[in-house]
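Sat 14:20. Reprocessing the chain from the morning session after the first attempt stalled halfway. Input below, unchanged.
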Amino acid sequence: MQRYCKQANKQTSKQEEENDVFEKEHLIKLANVKMPYGKYAGRVIIDLPEEYLLWFQKKGFPEGELGMLMALALEFKIEGLESVIKPLKY
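Finished this time. Tokens:
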């Protein structure tokens, strides 16, 4: 039983470490990836207007990483945390 608990703890720690890296990478992308199309093509995702992101939320965010980044940007804007992302811009 103890062996199993130790292995489970190692896996949990490794997963938590991977999640931290995963989140940091997304924050950097949020500050630097540009919208590839539409009315705001060329604008960095975190700089998209909240109204635009809310419209996409109702319509449905695009599939894949772009949609995930747009949803994350909306969450940051709703919570008033845009200032956390802005220093990460290149």
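The chain has one domain: 2-88.
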